[in-house]
User: What shape does this take?
Amino acid sequence: MWWARPDDWRPELESLLDNAERERLGRLRRRRDRERFVVGAALARTIVADYAGTAPARIGLDRTCADCGAAHGKPRVIGCDDAVELSISHSGDRVVVAIALGKAVGVDVESPRDDAAQLLELVDDVLRPEEARRLRALPANEQAAGFLTYWTRKESLLKATGEGLRLGLASVAVTGPGEPPRLLGWSEATGNVEGATLADLRPGAGYVACLAVLGGVTHVVEECASDRLASIAA
Ligand SMILES: CC(C)(COP(=O)(O)OP(=O)(O)OC[C@H]1O[C@@H](n2cnc3c(N)ncnc32)[C@H](O)[C@@H]1OP(=O)(O)O)[C@@H](O)C(=O)NCCC(=O)NCCS
Assistant: This one.
């Protein structure tokens, strides 16, 4: 797991983007969205390139969407002989890239929300009835963070399989806050999710993040990538 921040953005990082990514970047209006996108794309290439012993510019990311063919889907690595799988997530002041060898990964980070009441209006769309019941049994001041724990556990799984939010977060049953992260059931899963492993990450104050690995994981290493990105800019 490699963590970075939108503040790691440097103009030099944009030179690593391909044409499709530049087109998407051109459609992003808010500066923070642009920074998150560039840092995620540059970081993904850099980390894979370091692993493969090549230059970041030699690593391609194919984001062809399985639904519509546009370049906004699950990223797939091109230009690396080994079966490197990756996932990108960004929210608020965090950007994260997960990589694994030969196993599909999905990562999701969510930033703390100012408006807990608005967030909790989504409970019945995102959680199964039993999950919603357990969440509402928590003290009121723990419910927003608890909800994001459920959310990131579910979304990381949906990103590992490549379904994304197309399937709906309520299609996945997971353990909740205070319990070790685990997939409990997923009737609509298209791939083999039997050995899927979840790991809660440490994104820092107020943030919640989860990693899903299809086929299991024995250990997770979390590193800060800011210095690495700065070295590219230099
Ligand atoms: C992928 C998705 C779950 C992202 O959720 P999010 O919380 O807004 O954003 P995150 O920062 O956590 O993740 C975004 C990253 O997920 C990745 N991603 C996109 N689609 C993905 C998919 N189907 N599976 C796995 N990862 C995906 C991309 O790397 C993207 O980063 P990028 O902007 O650098 O390309 C959501 O956008 C989605 O479900 N998209 C697919 C459905 C859809 O809307 N399709 C568009 C119409 S065809």
Q: What stands out?
A: The first helix runs from residue 11 to 14. The chain has a mean pLDDT of 94. DSSP finds eight helices and eleven strands in the chain. The first strand starts at residue 2 and ends at 4.
